[in-house]
Amino acid sequence: MATTVDLGKVRPVWKGTWSGSTAYEVHDMVKSGLDSYICTTGHTSSGTFSNDSANWDTLATGFSGDASDITSGTIPDARFPSTLPAISGANLTNIAANGGTEGFYAYRNSDQSMTNNTWQLIGWPLTKINLNSNFDTNNSRFVVPSTGTYFFSASIGVNGMNSSSDTCYLRPAVNGVDINDVYARQGGYGGTENQQYMWQGVLSLTQGDYVTMLYHNNVVRSINTASTWFTGFRLT
Fold it and tell me: What is the Cα–Cα distance from 156 to 222, expressed in whole angstroms?
């Protein structure tokens, strides 16, 4: 003779969004607000979920995705404590508050004639970026607003490099004092060519220092506009 044994629910059953006046059994699962719950005591629900909360255990605490949850320092999640402090970065070390700021991008909109066999200042009469007006276009220099480490990059296009003996140099100067030659190239190779020269570097500077770019060639050449720019920003 066969015997029927009622095992009840052998696995949880998802019931969707919680609703009032509904019969719920143990292991039923529902969603209320942002959170999900599992039924621990069979019952018929009342008019509000909060009145029946004793019959439910929390499965997961939802997160709205609102920025206010983060900025307030409270990010609900069943895997964490009830409040999770937001990270402001105020206690991080070795990161300058001005890192990535105090930058500029300067350029030319016309050729610049240069003489030969002498170091000459490259003019930068225009800017596309000039944060806090720290780049002086009248004197073609970046004036350091605060002590720190800065990254710089400069490029020039030189017209008519038509001999393998043509040699061009591009280097920075701090407070009018040249830094070692940093880039040189021979160009032309028997035909008339326009060459591009680039320098990049990191300088430790003090507030009030100024940085310029200098050019030297052993023959008379001019700097064009196509590949000529000077940019930089604070690192730390």
Answer: 10
